[in-house]
Write a structure and sequence with these properties.
- With 102 residues, the protein is mostly helical.
- The chain has a domain of 25 residues.
- It is 23% helix and 0% strand.
- The chain has 2 helices and no strands.
- Keywords: Signal.
């Protein structure tokens, strides 16, 4: 049997589960419970707590090996390819700067 509608299939499935669950439930005869008498049990006295001072523990020093010095290769600077001699700082010409300002 093949059912094309999902809703119909779900309704049949739910109805079957509900019917199976309801048929297994049976009414049990009521059981009368008689309360048991309450018996007082004497509480034992607690043992006295003796606090002993905690022992003092000295921390053990950690010995670590010294790190080896890291040898880095020297930095290679390329040679300067300038022509001429150095004459000092270049002065800025204020007249040339005026043409770029609006």
């Amino acid at each position: 049997m093949k059912i094309n509608n999902r809703h119909v299939a779900m309704a049949i499935l739910i109805a079957g589960i509900a019917a199976a669950g309801c048929s297994q439930q049976q009414a049990a005869p009521p059981v009368e419970t008689v309360p048991e008498p309450v018996v007082e049990v004497p509480q034992p006295e607690p043992m006295p707590v003796i606090e002993e001072p905690a022992p003092v523990v000295q921390p053990v020093p950690v010995q670590r090996p010294r790190p080896r010095p890291v040898q880095r290769p020297p930095v290679k600077v390329p040679p300067v390819k300038a022509k001429g001699t150095y004459r000092g700082a270049v002065q800025i010409d204020r007249g040339a700067m005026q043409q770029y300002q609006y």
